[in-house]
Structures are given as structure tokens and as C-alpha cells.
Write a structure and sequence with these properties.
heterodimer; A: 226 residues; four-stranded mixed sheet; 6 helices; 7 strands; B: 223 residues; alpha+beta; seven-stranded mixed sheet; 9 strands; 42% helix
Chain lengths: 226, 223
């Protein structure tokens, strides 16, 4: 099921099965809700089973940009942000080389955070292991990967549960299936209805922009005794 | 030792532990590598130790030893045909009684080992290099320990136990205890099989030595 189909389903369910020009559910608004709740469902599934369905994962291919490089210690690649599957685990499953003919995938070592990088460099054994293999550090503030250990790397790949699947260049919102298993879509819709669309439908909109909250007045006008 | 041994890199033990724990990311790889290196050292098997011969540079009458050196077997000053044998002499002990009269041969080519350095007492006649025979752990080119593939089970359980210790909320206590028991059991198996193999490999030499001690059954030693 594509994202367009999912957003239409959610909008229709909330509005009695039909969508007109006067729908309150803007497409971009519903898409942002779907993205958020997809992450919530993935977290729930991870908490239950310690893993998520492979359909949640998407591939992102790093592109080397000379303008992005700001240090002689590492190679930097931009990468969309993943979701957080648990307190300790983010959504990255694989960071490493691109599999090609005759060359298997080689996963790079993951450095969880910058303090750990400093810690590993203080221990004789971990320093050797760190420096003899390629390592990847996710810089969340810049949404980029820092790759240590080999300054000649110009390509790579990551498989992750991304926070916003639309940011992946290889994802076509009109053609590709939304990265969520079919049996989780109904669970996601249920969550969205309970926490979002039902509240929206039951709240009267303030259609007049006059710095006054008219929602209660509109309600009174509608429900006033005749 | 002439037994064929399949020496594997540290990464194999890490991969084995990750398969056991069902970890499919590389977040713990560096830490697991450290644990594998530590686990190999904890096995304390003879087969993990080998004899090496290497050239070391002499600087300021001393040699810096690498950290994997366990025991010095012999030392030659100089290289090629222009070399001499040096001997280990515990000078502080010899002079502790107040005796300062030392034969020149003791001082000329004597050395001591202290704090990771070999110190030469006397004139080493301008020698710039020394060839040292020593025992050390089997290590790779980066100085990390190596072990046989058959020790994989023991090292795997060692890593699993420490992972379970750190993630005590995720892994039940009885599983953690089982990892520890398995590590101890596998370690015992490794040490015992190593001893049997060592005896089998040197059996012929032991037999020769014992045979040399037996002169004649008919000779009474007390006579």
C-alpha cells in the first residue's frame, strides 16, 4: 500500500468514508501523522520482539560531497535521521559497503557516540581494533555519518528505519509501497484514530481569523435550544 | 609443537558471540573484540604461547621490550658474525651483601630486566642491535592475541557472560549464570585437551630423557 492510499484511508475513515473539497485533513498533515505513528508502531513491535519486520527498513546510499568534508580525521556523509527503536537502539541496522558483484557486504564498526570514541582511544586494545577497521559515528546534530579508518572511502550504504521515508531519494511516494507491513497498517490506523483524528473530528474549527476563539461559540450556536 | 593448529583472527570469536546473542548490528564489535582478547589471555594454555626470535634496537644501553614478551630465553649482542652472548645477572642481589668485587666478564655482557626494559651493565662495544629469543603469546601484526578455532566455544561464552552482565535487565539471571558455567566448563576442556596435546607432541622427547636416566637394570646405584 502506498502512502497516498494510506493517507486517503485515514482521511476517509475519520470523515465517514468520503472526502470532499472541504475536508479538514490536509494531505501533508496526514502524511506527517502517518510518519510519526509508523515510528511508534515500530517501537512497539521492537519492544515486543526485540526486532522489527524487514519491511520497515529502507536503503540509503551515501553520496560523497567535497564541500561537506571539514576534517582530516574522517569522511563525512549526509544521511536522514532514523527513528529511535528503544532507549539504547536507534534504527540503523547496517552501515557499510555497497554489495557489488564478487564483493560481499562489509559492515563498518559502529561507534555509539562521541564519548565512546574518546574512551576507545584510551584503551590499548580497543584503540587497535578501532583503528584497524573502518568505523562509523552518527552525528545527530548534523544528520551525518563520520567514517573513521579510511579516508579514501567515497561511497557506502545504510539500512535503517528512517523517521521520514520520503527523504530517501530512491523512494517514490506514488509508486513504492510505504515501508510498513500490511498487518501493521490497521494497528497504526487505530492508534491515529484514537489519538488524533477522533479528537480533530470532535473539535469545532475556528474558521474566522479575528483573534477570538470562536470554537465554543460555534458549538453554542449549533447546540443552542430553539 | 608440531600439531597443526587453525589460528583464527579475533573477529571470528566476535562473530560467533554475536550469533549466539542474536545481535545483528555492529554497535558492540569493538567492546567484544576487547573481551575476546581478554578471554584468550584467561585461558592460560601452553599452546597459546610460542617461541620467537626478533631483533631489537639498543638505545642508551637499554632495549625496550614489547608488551607480549613473557620470558627471555637468550640474548645475542650485535648481528651477523660480529655478535656475542649476553647473560642475565641479578646485580642488585649479587651486590646486596656488600661485595663489589665482580669479575669483568660479569659486567661486560650482563643485563638485567626491569620495568619492561633490558638494561646492560657494562660496555656493549657500540652494539646497536640485539637478537633476543623469547616466549610470548601468539599475536597478530597489531599485537592482539590469536587462538585456535577450537577455543571458539570458550571465548564465545566468555563474551556472552559479560554482555549478559552489562544488559542484566534484558537477560535473565539464570541465563547469565549458565553462560558463566559454560565458560568455566569450556575453559577446563581447553586446558585439559591442551595438556594432552602438549604431552603427545613431546612424548618422544620425554621418552628419550627417561631412557637416558636408566643406565642398566642390573646396576645397583647404591654400590
Amino acid at each position: 500500500m502506498t502512502l497516498t492510499q494510506i493517507t486517503e484511508r485515514i482521511s476517509r475513515i475519520a470523515q465517514g468514508g468520503i472526502i470532499t473539497d472541504e475536508t479538514r485533513f490536509d494531505t501533508k498533515f496526514v502524511r506527517s501523522i502517518v510518519n510519526t505513528y509508523r515510528g511508534a508502531v515500530a517501537r512497539i513491535r521492537y519492544r515486543e520482539a526485540g526486532n522489527v519486520h524487514p519491511l520497515y527498513y529502507q536503503k540509503f546510499y551515501f553520496e560523497y560531497s567535497k564541500d561537506l568534508q571539514d576534517s582530516d580525521c574522517y569522511v563525512k556523509f549526509n544521511c536522514p535521521a532514523p527513528i529511535s527503536l528503544s532507549k539504547e537502539t536507534d534504527g540503523f541496522r547496517y552501515i557499510g559497503t555497497v554489495p557489488e558483484d564478487g564483493t560481499p557486504s562489509i559492515a563498518w564498526q559502529r561507534i555509539q557516540n562521541r564519548p565512546n570514541l574518546s574512551l576507545y582511544n584510551k584503551h590499548k586494545v580497543t584503540k587497535i581494533i578501532l583503528n584497524r577497521n573502518v568505523s562509523a559515528l552518527w552525528d545527530a546534530s548534523h544528520s551525518a555519518f563520520e567514517i573513521y579508518g579510511n579516508l579514501s572511502i567515497i561511497e557506502g550504504m545504510t539500512e535503517a528505519v528512517f523517521a521520514n521515508p520520503l527523504e530517501i531519494p530512491t523512494y517514490n511516494v506514488n509508486i513504492d509501497n510505504y515501508p510498513i507491513p500490511e498487518d501493521d497498517i490497521s494497528f497504526m490506523e487505530q492508534l491515529i484514530q484514537n489519538e488524533k483524528t477522533n479528537i480533530i473530528i470532535n473539535t469545532q474549527p475556528d474558521l474566522l481569523s479575528n483573534s477570538n476563539d470562536l470554537t465554543n461559540q460555534v458549538k453554542k450556536a449549533i447546540y443552542a435550544p430553539r | 609443537m608440531n600439531t597443526l593448529q587453525d589460528i583464527v583472527p579475533l573477529e571470528q570469536f566476535v562473530a560467533s558471540a554475536k550469533m549466539q546473542l542474536k545481535i545483528n548490528t555492529t554497535d558492540e564489535d569493538i567492546w567484544f573484540g576487547k573481551l575476546a582478547n581478554e578471554g584468550i589471555g584467561r585461558l592460560k594454555c601452553l599452546s597459546l604461547i610460542k617461541k620467537n626470535v626478533a631483533e631489537f634496537d639498543i638505545c642508551d644501553n637499554k632495549i625496550k621490550l614489547c608488551s607480549s614478551v613473557l620470558h627471555i630465553l637468550g640474548l645475542r649482542l650485535g648481528t651477523g658474525n660480529n655478535c656475542s652472548t649476553a647473560i642475565y645477572v641479578d646485580m642488585p642481589f649479587l651486590q646486596s651483601c656488600g661485595c663489589t668485587r665482580n669479575p669483568s666478564v660479569f659486567i661486560a655482557d650482563a643485563f638485567e630486566i626491569n620495568d619492561g626494559f633490558i638494561w646492560f651493565h657494562g660496555d656493549i662495544r657500540g652494539a646497536k642491535k640485539a637478537t633476543i629469543s623469547f616466549t610470548s603469546y601468539k599475536v597478530d601484526s597489531d599485537g592482539l592475541k590469536q587462538a585456535q578455532a577450537e577455543y571458539e566455544s570458550a571465548i564465545t561464552y566468555f563474551i556472552c557472560y559479560h554482555y549478559a552482565l552489562q544488559n542484566y535487565l534484558l537477560i535473565p539471571r539464570d541465563v547469565r549464570a549458565e553462560y558463566w558455567e559454560q565458560w568455566l566448563a569450556q575453559r577446563r576442556i581447553v586446558i585439559n585437551s591442551d595438556s594432552v596435546r602438549s604431552f603427545r607432541d613431546t612424548k618422544a622427547q620425554i621418552q628419550e630423557i627417561v631412557s637416558a636416566l636408566i643406565i642398566d637394570r642390573n646396576v645397583w646405584l647404591l654400590q
